[in-house]
Design brief:
The protein is mostly helical. It is built from 10 helices and 3 strands. Helices cover 75% and strands 3% of the residues. Helix 1 packs parallel to helix 9, helix 2 packs antiparallel against helix 9 and helix 8 packs antiparallel against helix 9. The mean pLDDT is 85.
Length: 319
């Protein structure tokens, strides 16, 4: 990247160019962002204060919730600010950093989904060895390795997208600095960059999908061999939340990044909204409302808080 590149400023065209729709859209997207923050912070807090949830499964869930918070925060605040501002310019450095952090947390989320699938595989297929295989040390090693690989991947992604020359139009037809709309503005040939991005995306996303598929094939084979219908139902119910999150995230990601650049249409913005705004908002509900352990821990925490309030009132009245 040349020194003069940092002087470039881009203009984010946003979701719509209609001035009358800006304020309603601001309210429409502000609410999901608030729900995302409250829901994911709530999941992290609940797991921390509930001893019954101190298991590898919920350790990965807290990491997933933290990633959702960061992932959404990279995109939503800037998008919300642009909806209320006439000045939608973003500097080259700010655009590059937004894309880097977006790619970083997106890669981590892919790896975490694969880890959660492997965790369910071991819990259902090898329950007697679960504590040995998925130990606390192994959990931290898996998460640390995902952060390292995601960091290296994000560097390569960012170099491919922003390493060329920008000398023409500066209007990004999107609400954040994403791969396709930024590559369209490059003056230099983008074929090699697109090939590297496609290869790395295949390793990250398709690789994690393979891990998830192999885990669930093994889970299905084990579950079908179970004698008890109740045990089979419990096993499938345990995996259903994870499968919903996987479908939501990878479905939109594959739609966006595994099609040729010439095929990209206005639906890309809708797909981007789903995996940057909607998915982080829905994940806490997917993992809590369909999970008896989480609901049970939530009820216990509510009773504990109510008991503390009643005890405080009694002590206050006596003094």
């Amino acid at each position: 990247m040349g020194g003069n590149q940092t002087q470039i400023k881009f203009i984010l065209l946003g979701i719509t160019d209609s001035p009358h729709a800006q304020t309603p859209l601001f309210v429409f997207f502000l609410l999901p962002y608030i729900v995302t923050l409250v829901g994911n912070v709530g999941i992290i807090t609940l797991v921390r204060v509930s001893p019954s949830l101190h298991t590898p499964m919920y350790f990965f869930l807290t990491q997933f919730a933290f990633t959702d918070i960061c992932y959404s925060t990279v995109i939503s605040p800037r998008m919300l600010a642009d909806l209320l501002s006439e000045d939608k310019t973003i500097s080259f450095t700010a655009c590059m950093m937004q894309f880097f952090t977006f790619a970083f947390f997106a890669a981590i989320e892919c790896h975490l989904l694969a880890m959660m699938a492997y965790d369910r595989h071991v819990a259902i297929c090898q329950p007697l060895l679960y504590v040995t295989i998925i130990s606390s040390r192994v959990c931290w090693q898996l998460v640390a390795s995902s952060y390292l690989f995601a960091f290296l991947s994000a560097i390569v992604y960012t170099w491919c997208v922003f390493g060329g020359s920008f000398c023409g139009p500066n209007r990004i037809d999107h609400f954040f600095c994403d791969v396709v709309p930024v590559l369209k503005l490059m003056c230099s040939d983008t074929h090699s960059s697109e090939m590297v991005i496609f290869a790395l995306f295949t390793i990250n996303d398709v690789g994690t999908i393979v891990v998830i598929l192999l885990s669930y094939i093994s889970i299905i084979r084990t579950v079908l061999r179970m004698c008890s219908a109740q045990s089979r139902a419990r096993a499938f119910h345990t995996c259903s939340s994870h499968l919903m999150a996987v479908s939501l995230f990878f479905g939109t990601a594959f739609f966006m990044y595994l099609q040729p650049p010439s095929s990209h249409r206005n639906l890309d913005k809708v797909a981007s909204i789903i995996y940057t705004v909607v998915a982080p908002m829905l994940n806490p509900f997917i993992y809590s409302l369909r999970n008896k352990e989480v609901k049970g821990a939530l009820v216990k925490c509510g009773r504990r808080l109510l008991h503390h309030r009643q005890l405080r009132r009694v002590l206050t009245s006596r003094t």
